Amino acid sequence: MDQKGRNSLLARQSLTIIPELFSRKITACSPGAGFLKYPLFPCEFKAVLPGKLAPVNASGGLASIISEGKRAITVKVNEVIAVAGFALPGSYVDVLVSGKDGSGQPFSRTVLSRVKVLAVAQETAMEPDKPKVVNAVTVELTPTESEKLDLARNIGKLSLVLRNEFDANEINSAGVRLPDIVYPHSALAATPSPVAQAAPLRRSRAGQGRGFEEIRGTSRQSAAKP
Fold first, then answer.
1. What's residue 77's pLDDT?
2. Which residues contact 65 (CB under 8 A, 6 or more apart)?
3. Residue 131: HSE in the Cβ half-sphere, 13 Å Cα cutoff
4. Flp pilus assembly protein RcpC/CpaB domain location, by residue (predicted)?
5. Which of 160, 84, 148, 87 lies closest to 123 in space, CA to CA?
6. pLDDT by residue (tens digit) across 35-45?
7. CA–CA distance from 1 to each of 7, 10, 160 (Å)?
C-alpha cells in the first residue's frame, strides 16, 4: 500500500463513529447518584464528579447548589460594576464598597474577597463565551459575610471585581481615600512650620538705669539714685 493509500485508511479510521458498541438496547441501569447542579454545555468535555451532583431527593433550584454552611444573597448591580457581564455563575469576585465615612470623606474598600457567584439574574448557568449584562448577581457567603455585605450595600455602592478562579489569596487592604488619589504620597509629608524665635533678653549692666533727672526751669540736672 502506497503512502496515499495509508493516509486514506488512516483518515477513514479516525473519522469512523462506532455505534455498533451501543446497538443493544439498555434495559436496566443502576440507581442514579444524583443530578447535575449545573448543566453541561456542548464541547466543554468536563468530567462529572461527585461534587457536581446534588442528592437524588433534593428539591433542585438554587437552594440545591448552595454549599453546606453557606448562604445565598442577591445584590443589585449594573453594567459597569458587574464587570460588563463577565461575572458568570461559578466565577469568583471581590466585593468593593465606596461611600463616605462619618466625616463625609469619600472612601473605597474591599469588604469581601474570593466570593463565588451562584447565579446571574435568574440563571444559575450560562455559556462562558456568551457574557450577559444583568441587574442582579447572587453570591455565596457565610452568615457573617452576609451580614457584612448587607451593611455595605446600605452605606455605599457595591462593585464586583473579577478574579482568577485559581487565585486563593485573601485581600487585606486598608482601603483608599480621596487624598490618596488627589495628592501624591510624597506631598503628604507634613512640612514643619517655622518656630518663632524669642528675642534675647537685654540685660542692663550693674548700676545702669539707677538714677533720676531733675528739671528746674530751663536747666536739667541728673543725679545718681542714692
1. 76
2. 37, 38, 54, 118, 124
3. 10
4. 60-163
5. 87
6. 555 555 454 55
7. 10, 12, 63
- Nearest-angstrom CA–CA distance, 38 and 60: 11
Q: What's the gap between Cα 171 and its chain centre?
A: 8
144-152 CB contacts, 8 Å cutoff, 24+ apart: 145/112, 145/115, 146/71, 146/73, 148/111, 148/112, 149/73, 149/75, 149/95, 149/111, 149/112, 150/73, 152/95, 152/97, 152/111
Whether residue 187 is predicted with pLDDT greater than 50 in this model: the reply is no
Q: How far apart are the first and last CA of the chain?
A: 146
Q: Are 127 and 188 in contact (CB under 8 A)?
A: no
Q: How many angstroms separate the CA atoms of 194 and 154, rounded?
A: 46
- Residue 109 to residue 47: CA distance in whole angstroms: 38
Question: What letter does residue 213 receive in the DSSP assignment?
Answer: E
Residue-range domain boundaries for the chain? 71-165+176-186
- The two beta strands, 35-36 and 136-141, are unpaired
Please calculate the CA angle 192-197-201 and round it to the nearest 5 degrees: 165
Closest residue by Cα to residue 96 from 110, 82, 83: 110
